[in-house]
Amino acid sequence: MPTTADFERMLRGAALRVTRPRLAVLSAVHDLPHADTDSIINAVRKTLPDVSHQAVYDVLRALTNAGLLRRIQPLGSVARYEARVGDNHHHVVCRMCGAIADVDCAVGEKPCLTAVDDAGYEIDEAEVIYWGRCPKCRAKEPASQPRQ
Amino acid sequence: MPTTADFERMLRGAALRVTRPRLAVLSAVHDLPHADTDSIINAVRKTLPDVSHQAVYDVLRALTNAGLLRRIQPLGSVARYEARVGDNHHHVVCRMCGAIADVDCAVGEKPCLTAVDDAGYEIDEAEVIYWGRCPKCRAKEPASQPRQ
DNA sequence: CTCCAATACTTGATTCATTCAAGAAAATGG
DNA sequence: CCATTTTCTTGAATGAATCAAGTATTGGAG
Asked: Strand D closer than 7 Å to the CB of A51?
């Protein structure tokens, strides 16, 4: 797990000012991969009880734009953030409980897939979301099938 | 383009009651691929001026659950719907203007990709979103690069 | 054809994630 | 330490989507 000094280095490396809210958000997202904004706000408030939700929204946007965080948002979910960036990995989402897990990308670079017909678009990334049932939900209802 | 009789057959085939709002929504989504809910409401009101937005939301949900429509929602966009279902095709989204185009799937069946490590999930679908710049935006700003 | 039960729609209010706006506070360079 | 710029706080607003209660329509049974 990175230290505060590491986070500070990351911020400076991205030409961003170092502030307590930013350090706290970075730390929270490293601790809670795929957390939504509300969970991040709560985590941040354990060390900084008075941060405004607006500050967290601003920080998440700034860090995402700087490439320090990645924003994901599977169908039916609010925005979620993760700190694992730069390796072009993918995600698998549980249709029943919404749990998200990382899936390594066999290629590792963008774009890792080529479209058969790109419709004239200049493609720089292929985002893949696998849908299915997580281990817990498979154990709970082994007979039932998730909806297609 | 399917006729009203075709839409009626689709609804009955899915064990759904045939109503004017449902026929109008089916027709609108066939006419306007990748349209958001608001555009669909407006399109429906050209033939049925008094449908409530709630009815359209309900219909979209019912038709999606029945497999007659597919719901998509790229990052930063509201929910969109398309009538092309069953062929497991994918989408390419313009980072600049949000335009969406269909991309055929080389495999055509779900799941068309296999995860290197499925984290114990039972995967039934691989959803792919290609990100890039559409032809129009490429022509407009040939020098600039979309943000990564 | 008529009636009934189930389903779908209308109306109106509500929720909740996210954004906007204006002013106060903090961070970096000089 | 000061000035400028950026960031944060506070409070309100937006807007897609959902909830809830009552009315209307559908499709099958009689």
From this structure: yes
Structure tokens at A11: 């911020």
Look at residues B95, B93, B52, B51 and name the one whose alpha carbon lies nearest to residue B73: B93
How far CA B62 is from CA of B3, B55, B69, in Å, comes to: 20, 10, 9
SS3 at position A23: helix
Please calculate the CA angle A71-B95-A116 and round it to the nearest 5 degrees.
105
Instruction: Grade residue A148 by pLDDT with cuts at 50, 70 and 90.
Output: very low
Cα–Cα distance for residue pair A118/A61, rounded to 1 Å: 29
Q: Which residue of A has its CA nearest to B72?
A: A75
CA A80 to chain centre: 5
pLDDT, averaged across chain B: 91
| pTM for this prediction | 0.90
Residues 50-79 (A) near nucleic chain C, CB < 7 A:
53-54, 57, 61, 73, 78-79
Q: What is the DSSP letter of B51?
A: -
pLDDT, tens digit (0-9, with 9 covering 90-100), for A94-125 = 998 999 999 998 777 778 888 888 899 999 99
